[in-house]
């Protein structure tokens, strides 16, 4: 049992290192849009610190004109558990809009019920910041 726990802890630590060192923004949100996790790349790309982001709803980084499309993607995701990467506009803390390629995946519990959405967001080259 101790060996299994030790192995699980090592695997978890490796995953944390990958997320922290990633060049892409990795964001975890609950089903109401509350941001639960925000890696350093998200700070570099969008400008909000992790502390600020953890007090935000994901809608705060979606330009108003893009909200309906973003909600449609969440509905689509809830039916498939994974979406092909797609391009979207996101709002930076500075007020600028940046284009990102988004890969989104739902997280499900042991009863196969969705409880969160994880996204990886890569800034599209040609945008000036980050």
Alpha carbon gap, first and last residue: 44 Å
Largest sheet: 5 strands, antiparallel
Mean pLDDT: 87
* CATH architecture descriptor text: 2-Layer Sandwich
Number of helices: 4
Number of extended strands: 5
Return the CATH class. Answer: Alpha Beta
Count of the domains: 1
What percent strand?
25-35%
The CATH superfamily name is PAS domain
Low-pLDDT runs of 5+ residues are none
Helix residue percentage: 25-40%
Structural class: alpha+beta
CATH topology: Beta-Lactamase
Overall shape: globular
N-to-C series of helices and strands: HEEHHHEEE
Question: What is the strand arrangement across the widest sheet?
Answer: 2-1-5-4-3
Topology:
Elements: H1 2-21, E1 25-30, E2 35-38, H2 40-46, H3 50-53, H4 67-80, E3 86-91, E4 97-108, E5 114-123
Antiparallel strand pairs: 1-2, 1-5, 3-4, 4-5
In short:
This protein is α+β, with helices and mostly antiparallel strands. It has helices spanning 2-21, 40-46, 50-53, 67-80; strands spanning 25-30, 35-38, 86-91, 97-108, 114-123.
